[in-house]
Amino acid sequence: MGIADLKQIVEALLIASPEPLTDARFRACLKDEATNIPLADIISELETDYTKSRRAFEIKKVASGFQIVTKSEFEPYIKGLFSKAGKLRLSQAALETLAIVSYRQPVTKNDIEAIRGVSSDSSLRTLLDRKLLEIRGRDEGPGRALLYRTSTEFLQYFGLNTVKDLPKLREVEDILSEEQDELL
After folding, report:
1. Is the dihedral of CA 162, 150, 157, 17 positive or negative?
2. Is 123 found in the same domain as 68?
3. DSSP assignment, residue 135?
């Protein structure tokens, strides 16, 4: 196996791997085709190729391994690609459930359903699947019901540092009444 073949293999592994590619992981992927050429040498050749062909990405040494990353000059465009605007679509029921949990957490399913007046199984499942909610533990009361709270992803999505940064319920009421007055 020549260096050109190894470069293609390393490049494929770098693209496919969600975490940095270490020398040990590279050797494990080669199995019987192990080579005495160090991964760092192959990476160096790939970097030279990428520089010559003016690629939008580069290889960085990360966590004792290597990873393909886009160059920092393309950050504004990439942010646009992953913009959160319009990405998250939730039903009215899921939004209601999310609001209840975010303001009353930790909260049980029964508490949510008592406020909403309808079953919240589907909404809770959706919010858990989308990682906006997480299970905190169990209630101390009878039946030891699950307790739900908002997740780190919830905070990231809504740009909050903590749930204390949520608008106060009185502020929300004021905003809603102002919007309703403008419509009239």
Report:
1. positive
2. no
3. E
180 to each of 95, 169, 184, how far by Cα in Å?
Answer: 20, 16, 7
Q: Mean pLDDT for each consecutive 10-residue tract of the chain (184 residues)? A: 77 85 81 70 88 90 80 84 66 93 94 94 94 93 92 82 84 78 73
Q: What is the DSSP string of 33-46?
A: G--SS-HHHHHHHH
Domain end call among 49, 78, 107: 78
Cis peptide before 106 (omega within 30 of 0): yes
Q: Which amino acid is at 128?
A: L
Residue 13: what residue type? L
Please state the pTM of the whole predicted model. 0.50
